[in-house]
Structures are given as C-alpha cells and as structure tokens.
Amino acid sequence: MASRPGSASRPVVLVVGGGYVGLYTALRLQRRLSRGEAEVVVVDPQPHMTYQPFLPEAAAGSVEPRHVVVPLRRTLPRCRVVTGAVVWLSHAQRRARIAPAEGAPYEISYDVLVMAAGSVARTLPIPGLAEHGIGFKTVGEAIFLRNHVLARLDAAASTDDPAVRTRALTFTFVGGGYAGIEAFAELEDMARYAVVHYYPRLSPGDMRWVLVEATGRILPEVDLDMAAWTVRQLTARGMDVRLNTRLEEVSDDGVVRLSDGDSFPSDTLVWTAGTKPNPVLAQTDLPLDQRGRVRCEPTLQVSGLDGAWAAGDLAAVPDLTKDEPGATTAPNAQHAVRQAKRLADNIVAVLRGGRPRPYRHAYAGSVASLGLYKGVAQVYGVKLRGWPAWFMHRTYHVSRVPTFNRKARVVADWTMASVFRREVIALGQLQDPRREFVTAAGLGGAGHLPAPSAGDRAQAG
Ligand SMILES: Cc1cc2nc3c(=O)[nH]c(=O)nc-3n(C[C@H](O)[C@H](O)[C@H](O)COP(=O)(O)OP(=O)(O)OC[C@H]3O[C@@H](n4cnc5c(N)ncnc54)[C@H](O)[C@@H]3O)c2cc1C
C-alpha cells in the first residue's frame, strides 16, 4: 500500500540518494525551509554520506574510516531519513518504491523529486574480473583493501614458497583517473612504510605495483605535463605504469593477462576504470541521454518534467562555461556540491512562487594525493607538485568535508599520525568475523556463513 510521509497540506520533497548532492541539498532545504513549507525525505541504502576523496587516505590509514562518512540522521535532524534503496519510480504518478534494508518493499508518494543516486563502477565483460576484482568507491572497499594489502604482506613474510610470495606481493590496479591513481599511490606508500619498518624478511623491491590504463595518459583532469610528471614520480618509486594497455583476462587461479602480452599472478585486482550513471534510472520514467544520464536543463530541472530535479554524477547538466554545443558538466565532487546548493535554492524559489536560476561554474581544477607528503595539483591554472600539492590537497578537502565534527576529527587523525608511527596492522578478522565462532561450534569453515564475496575471495587468494 502506498504511504504519504507528509501531511496533505505540505509538499513532500523526495531526495533519492544521500551522497554529495543528496546531503548538501537536504542540508540547505532543512536550513531554508520552515517545517510548514515542506517535508524532506532522504532515501539511501547507507545511513551515511561518504566523502569519497578521503577514501584513499582511509585505505592508507591516515584518516579513520568512520571519519570519512557523515551520519545522515545526525546531520539531517529536520528531514526524514529512510535507509533503503529506491528501486522503481514513476514521476508521472509521483510515486517511488523503496526496498528497505529489511522487510518488504513499499511505495511512497511525493510532490517534488531530487534524483541524486550518483554513479556505479563501469565494468567491462572481461573474463574473471567480476570474480577476482574489487572496486574503490565505498568505505567498505577502502577498509577491505587496507586489510587485504597488509594481510598480503603478512602472508608473503610468513612463507618460504616463492610462488605464494610473488602473487601476494603483486598488486594490480586498472584505471588511471584520480580515484585509481590516489588509491594506487596511497596504498603503495603505506605498504612501503610497513615493509621498511616491520617486515625484515621483505624489501620494497619485492613488491610489484602495476597500474594498467587503456589510454595514453593518466589523470585527465590535469594538463598533460602534470600527468607525465606524475607517471615519472610513480615510476621513480618502482611502480609499473602501463599506458595504452588493457586488462584482457583474469584466470581462475588469479593470473592477470594484459593486452601488451604480459601475464602474472596477482592476489590483488582493483578496478577503478570509470563510472556510469546509477542503473536504477532504467526503472524510472525520467528522460535519459545516450550515456544513460538524466537529461537536465541548466536550472537542474529534469527536461520536460515539472517538479523533478537532478544533479551530480547521474545528471547531464549543460556546462554554460563552455562554448562547445552539448557540453555537460563533468562527474566530480566540485560540481556535485555546487549543483546541490543551486538545486536547493531553486526548489525553495519555485515553492515560494519564484523562478529557478541556471547553474554555472567553471571547473577550478584538481588536487590529488600520492602518499604522505606527495601530491599533484592544478587549481585555477596554478600547477603544484610534491609537498605543496599534498598540503593543498589536505587543506582543500578538510575545508570541504561536511560538518565541523568531521573536519575536527580528520584534523585530529592527521595530527596523531604525524606524532606517532603509522598504524599498519591488518585486522583481517573484520572480513570474516564469524569464522572462529563457527569453527568452535564445530560447523567447519562453511557452516551457515554467507557465500564469500569477490572481495573475500581476493582475501583468501
Ligand atoms: C575514491 C574516489 C575519490 C574521489 N576523489 C575526488 C576528488 O578528489 N575530487 C572530486 O571532485 N571528485 C572526486 N571523486 C568523485 C566524487 O566523489 C563524485 O563525483 C561525487 O560523489 C558525486 O556525487 P553524487 O551525489 O552524484 O553521488 P554520490 O556522492 O556517490 O552519492 C550517491 C548516493 O546515492 C546512494 N544510492 C545509490 N543507489 C541508490 C538507490 N537506488 N536509492 C537511493 N539511494 C541510492 C548511494 O548510496 C550514495 O550515497 C572521487 C570519487 C571516488 C570514488
């Protein structure tokens, strides 16, 4: 049966997704609208927003994983937060079906829609990829990879079998955008520190870090000279950057085969080769472009529909700062945050009988961390390398992470990390917490445990 969360007198604003766009839109709506003007309902499968630019630092242990997420219920006390996924939506009927974390799906009615469900990893039908690979988009994946990389060092240091050692110490990443490069560089930096300080039987030269990128460059967000400098920096650290190379196959026993003819066993395969709009859009009646994004007007209104808005990674928003016809804003946090603010202001204006204003923002540039005290940045045409870029990365992101609480905790994490030695302990039991109890109860390794995920298999491999 359909339920309507608001009272008949005030409109319901349904925000699908509590990420960058969803959280910032709801924050602004809760601040600008009085309780009588509208009820804001935020639906997300996670009870938190994830500040994704901090995931590489969370994986490297510089920031506590809990501090890179922002709890929705605490941050949005004047909104109704629903933990569940929107699985179907008809804007014509103004209804959405929600699958809660547990229990049967149900429908709600709404008046105004904000579609902000973001993007998902863009994978290719490469044999073995789904079975052996893991993405890098969620805090769960970041924690898993941190534990996994450290567990691989433990495995390599505790065996005399050269084959086990080689595959444990080979780490393969696919995709050279900022998410991939930062994850690749931060994890290598952490692993190198761990090897030098705590693994006398290993040396950094025993590790093999391979980045596979299908195009002729990495970091498309910065100029070519900065991208080339980054490749030189990574190569000087002994990392293997393969441009114009594709992942072709991963065999059942984890041997990675590349398009340049090379193949090698690798216990770690991280896929960061781009994103695509959330596939839930196919279960809606919203108009989509040829890339599967929601068609939007410059005002962030969904084209041709009343009362529907969209922004962020899943939206095709015209880029008014570019002359090329058909240019749309790139999927990144910079646009997501600014679009959310414009979107919320436009909703408030329309609810109060006013007119929406177009979104216009020229991309300011990029900052990327490449490990402790290492980075690359290009902001408003200014190019920075090494320590200054790393410092800019930190100051920029701490100024951007939502809420004072999170800013303070992140700064505290960095301060502690600069005073004490780096934390490089693998909490492998987190990946399989019931194993010991199930074994003690005599059910053996399998018992009633759920089937292992691709990530668990990578851990076991
Ligand atoms: C590792 C990494 C590093 C990055 N670093 C940078 C950087 O340095 N600079 C930069 O500009 N950008 C960066 N980005 C990109 C940036 O994080 C995204 O562009 C931004 O998050 C997009 O915001 P969004 O609101 O569209 O999507 P998201 O922030 O991803 O939010 C989407 C939300 O929708 C929820 N959702 C999904 N499906 C459903 C459903 N069916 N129903 C309801 N809710 C749903 C999700 O749980 C999520 O909370 C990075 C991304 C990654 C992965």
How is the secondary structure organized here?
Elements (H helix, E strand, L loop, with lengths): L1 E2 L8 E5 L3 H13 L6 E6 L3 E3 L4 H6 L8 E3 H4 L4 E11 L4 E6 L5 E4 L2 E4 L3 E3 L7 H4 L6 H19 L4 H7 L1 E5 L3 H21 L9 E5 L11 H13 L3 E3 L4 E4 L4 E4 L4 E3 L2 E4 L3 E3 L16 E2 L12 E3 L4 E2 L16 H19 L13 E5 L5 E5 L2 E4 L1 H14 L3 H16 L15 H6 L13 H7 L1
Parallel strand pairs: 1-8, 2-3, 2-9, 3-6, 9-20, 11-12, 11-17, 12-13, 19-21
Antiparallel strand pairs: 4-5, 6-7, 7-8, 10-18, 14-15, 15-16, 22-23, 23-24
Describe this structure in words.
The protein is built from 13 helices and 24 strands. With 461 residues, it is α/β, with parallel strands linked by helices. The chain has three domains: 2-121 and 276-351, FAD/NAD(P)-binding domain; 129-273, FAD/NAD(P)-binding domain; 428-460, no CATH class. The chain binds flavin-adenine dinucleotide (FAD). Flavin-adenine dinucleotide (FAD) is lined by residues 16-22, 43-46, 52-53, 55, 85-86, 116-118, 136-137, 178-179, 278, 280, 312-313, 331-334, 336. Flavin-adenine dinucleotide (FAD) binds next to helix 1, strand 3, strand 6, helix 7 and helix 9. It comes from Geodermatophilus saharensis. InterPro entries: FAD/NAD-bd_sf, FAD/NAD-binding_dom, NDH-2. This is NADH dehydrogenase.
